[in-house]
C-alpha cells in the first residue's frame, strides 16, 4: 500500500441509539478520510462519540446512515459473516483491557486470529514469534497472560492485532490501563509501528499519546470540531 | 417346598389342589412367583426412574447454570473474540463443548461412584437372612450405562445451547462499552 491512498473513507456517518424510546445520536453526520500510513488520534470529552466512531470504523457496529469504505469496501452494508471475516483479515483491534485468552500462551494468543484465518501452523508460529520479537517479547512467547505485566499483555494484544497484516489498526484507549512509564513504552511502540507503515487510529484521553500521533481529531457531541495534521507522512514507510 | 410337575402338566391346577389339601399352604408357580417379584420390583424401577429423571434435570440445570456463569464471566473476552473476527460458530462450539465436557466428567464420576455405592449396598442387602446366596439387588448392565451416557451427552449439548446463544447474540459494541464502564 502506498502513502496518500485512503484506507478509510467515511461520509456523513451517523449512529443513533434509542434511549428511553427517543433516538440519541452519538455520531452526527461525520465525514473522515484516513490515508495509508497515517496515525490518527481521536480525542474529546467522555460521551462525545469517540468510541462509537471507532466501533463503526472497526465494523463491530453499523451506522444508522452514511457510507463507510475501508480499502474500498462498503463496511456499512456488510452482513454479519462478511463483517466478521473482514474484521479478521482487514482490521486489527487493541482494547483498553487487553483481553488475552488466559489459558493460552502469548504466542498462542497471537496465533489465534491466524488460526481462524486458516493460516498453516508453521507459518503462524513463525509469524507469532516474529511479532512478539517486534513488540519486545521474543523471550516470553510461552508465558501465560497472568505471568506478564499489564504493559507486556498490551504488547501481546498489539501483536495479536497485527497477526493477519490488517490494513488498519484501531486502538481504544490503549494506554488506559497502563502506568505512566509503561504507557510511554506503548506510545513508542505505536510510533515504531506507524513509522514502519501501519495505519493507526486511536481513541484516547491520554494527552501524550495524542501528541505522538501524526494527526489529531477533536470530537464534541458526535462531530469533528478540529482536525490537525502534526506530522506529515513519511515518504516511503517500510512494511510493518 | 418345591414341587416338580411333569412336562405339560397344568401347573396352576396343581397349585390349587395343593392349596385345597392344606389351607395353611399357599402354592405359587415359578411363573407366578417371578410375576410377583417383578411387580414388587417395578415399584423400585419407577422410583429409580423418578430419581434418575430428577437427577438428570438437576444436572442439566446445574450444567446450564455453570456454563452461563462461565459465559457471563468471560463476556468481555467473548465480545473481543467476536471483534477480532472469530466466527460465531466457533464460539457456539466452544461454549457447547464446555457444557459437554462438564457433563461427561460428571457422567464418568457418577458412574464410578454409582458402581461403588451399588456394590456396597448390594453387600449389605444381600447379607439379609433368608435370601438366596446368588441374589443381587444391583447389577451392572453395560447397555444401560451406554444409554445413560448418551442421554447425559445429549443433556450436556442441550445445556450449552442457551449460554451459547447468549454468547453469540450479544452486541459486541454494547458489551465492550459496558465492560469499559465496569
Helix content of chain B: over 70%
Shape of chain A: globular
Largest beta-sheet characterization of chain A: 6 strands, mixed
Number of domains of chain B: 1
Rg of chain A, rounded, reads 17 Å
What fraction of residues of chain B sit in β-strands? under 5%
Task: Going across the biggest sheet of chain A, name each strand in turn.
Answer: 6-7-8-3-9-10
Low-confidence stretches of chain A: none
Map the helices and strands:
The complex is a heterodimer of chains A (240) and B (182).
Chain A lengths: L5 E14 L2 E14 L3 E5 L6 H8 L7 E6 L2 E2 L5 H11 E4 L11 H11 L4 H14 L15 H13 L5 E5 L7 H16 L4 E4 L3 H6 L2 E6 L2 E7 L11
Parallel strand pairs in A: 3-8, 3-9, 6-7, 7-8
Antiparallel strand pairs in A: 1-2, 1-4, 4-5, 9-10
Helix pairs in contact in A: 3-4, 3-5, 4-5, 5-6
Chain B lengths: L10 H11 L8 H44 L1 H9 L4 H39 L15 H28 L2 H10 L1
Helix pairs in contact in B: 2-4, 2-5, 3-6, 4-5
Would you kindly provide a written description of the structure presented here, covering whatever features stand out?
The complex is a heterodimer of chains A (240) and B (182). Chain A is an alpha/beta fold. Chain A has 7 helices and 10 strands. A 6-stranded mixed sheet of chain A has the order 6-7-8-3-9-10, sandwiched between helices. Chain A has a 4-stranded antiparallel sheet with strand order 2-1-4-5, with helices on one face. Chain A is globular. Chain B has 182 residues and is mainly alpha-helical. Chain B has one domain. In chain B, helix 2 packs antiparallel against helix 4, helix 2 runs parallel beside helix 5 and helix 4 packs antiparallel against helix 5. The longest helix of chain B is centred in the first third of the chain and has 44 residues. The chains are: A alpha/beta (240), B mainly alpha (182). Chains A and B meet through helix 1, helix 2, strand 6 and helix 3 of A and helix 3 and helix 6 of B.
Amino acid at each position: 500500500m502506498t502513502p496518500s491512498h485512503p484506507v478509510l473513507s467515511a461520509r456523513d456517518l451517523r449512529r443513533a441509539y434509542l434511549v428511553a424510546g427517543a433516538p440519541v445520536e452519538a455520531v452526527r453526520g461525520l465525514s473522515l478520510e484516513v490515508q495509508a500510513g497515517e496515525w490518527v488520534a481521536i480525542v474529546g470529552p467522555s460521551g462525545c462519540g469517540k468510541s462509537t466512531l471507532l466501533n463503526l470504523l472497526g465494523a463491530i457496529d453499523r451506522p444508522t446512515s452514511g457510507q463507510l469504505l475501508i480499502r474500498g469496501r462498503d463496511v456499512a452494508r456488510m452482513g454479519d459473516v462478511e463483517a466478521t471475516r473482514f474484521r479478521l483479515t482487514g482490521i486489527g483491534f487493541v482494547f483498553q483491557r487487553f483481553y488475552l485468552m488466559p489459558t493460552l500462551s502469548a504466542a498462542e494468543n497471537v496465533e489465534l486470529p491466524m488460526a481462524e484465518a486458516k493460516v498453516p501452523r508453521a507459518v503462524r508460529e513463525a509469524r507469532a514469534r516474529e511479532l512478539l520479537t517486534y513488540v519486545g517479547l521474543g523471550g516470553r512467547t510461552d508465558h501465560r497472560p497472568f505471568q506478564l505485566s499489564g504493559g507486556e499483555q498490551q504488547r501481546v494484544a498489539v501483536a495479536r492485532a497485527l497477526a493477519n497484516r490488517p490494513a488498519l489498526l484501531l486502538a481504544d484507549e490503549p494506554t488506559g490501563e497502563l502506568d505512566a512509564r509503561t504507557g510511554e513504552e506503548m506510545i513508542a511502540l505505536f510510533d515504531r509501528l506507524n513509522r514502519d507503515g501501519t495505519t493507526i487510529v486511536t481513541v484516547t484521553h491520554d494527552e501524550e499519546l495524542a501528541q505522538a500521533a501524526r494527526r489529531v481529531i477533536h470530537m464534541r457531541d458526535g462531530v469533528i470540531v478540529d482536525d490537525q495534521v502534526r506530522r506529515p507522512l513519511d515518504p516511503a514507510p517500510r512494511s510493518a | 417346598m418345591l414341587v416338580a410337575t411333569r412336562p405339560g402338566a397344568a401347573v396352576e391346577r396343581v397349585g390349587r389342589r395343593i392349596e385345597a389339601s392344606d389351607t395353611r399352604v399357599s402354592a405359587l408357580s415359578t411363573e407366578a412367583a417371578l410375576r410377583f417379584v417383578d411387580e414388587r420390583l417395578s415399584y423400585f424401577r419407577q422410583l429409580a426412574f423418578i430419581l434418575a429423571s430428577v437427577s438428570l434435570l438437576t444436572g442439566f440445570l446445574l450444567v446450564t447454570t455453570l456454563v452461563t456463569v462461565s459465559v457471563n464471566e468471560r463476556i468481555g473476552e467473548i465480545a473481543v473474540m467476536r471483534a477480532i473476527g472469530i466466527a460465531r460458530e466457533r464460539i457456539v462450539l466452544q461454549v457447547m463443548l464446555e457444557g459437554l465436557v462438564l457433563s461427561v466428567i460428571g457422567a464418568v464420576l457418577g458412574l464410578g461412584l454409582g458402581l461403588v455405592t451399588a456394590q456396597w449396598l448390594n453387600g449389605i442387602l444381600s447379607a439379609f437372612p433368608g435370601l438366596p446366596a446368588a441374589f443381587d439387588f444391583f447389577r451392572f448392565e453395560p447397555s444401560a450405562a451406554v444409554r445413560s451416557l448418551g442421554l447425559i451427552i445429549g443433556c450436556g449439548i442441550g445445556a450449552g445451547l442457551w449460554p451459547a446463544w447468549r454468547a453469540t447474540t450479544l452486541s459486541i459494541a454494547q458489551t465492550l462499552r459496558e465492560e469499559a464502564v465496569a
